[in-house]
What does this fold into?
Amino acid sequence: MFDRIVVALDGSAEAESSGRLGLRIAAALDSEVTAVSVVDVRVVEGPAVETLAPLWGEVTGRPFQPELMRLYRERADAILDDCSRTASSLGASLVGRRADIGVAEDAILDRAGNADLLVMGRRGEHAGFGRQVVGATVWRVLHRSPCPVLIGAKPGVSGEETQEG
It folds into this structure.
């Protein structure tokens, strides 16, 4: 049924929780898992970098982009390392780990092209900046995914509605 599962991870608690869920499903069904973490170019090349450049005596953010890219790539690799350890502890078959660079939803959808199931958190690493039920990346993935998408629950929530203050 779900022979090939893609787990999308961004370092957030929701992605980690959903990743564990995807790995548990994979272990139970003897499925192959590919984990993907995306360095979103919009963060590295976006307006925030340009806006902050003068703080470091630069006219543009371009001098910082290679270093930012390196740091985000290291972070993606660390996220995938954690996933590898979790997969091993759960007995899941992690056959691929991809630290992609691009627009998050596009990179995730590319990896989901050959999958039977895509698993991701409902809100990502910027979850604290909004009250939407699902994040923008998840929303765009849901509308374009070539396979079913399993959205994990918020960590610590057992199905009941919560009030966010």
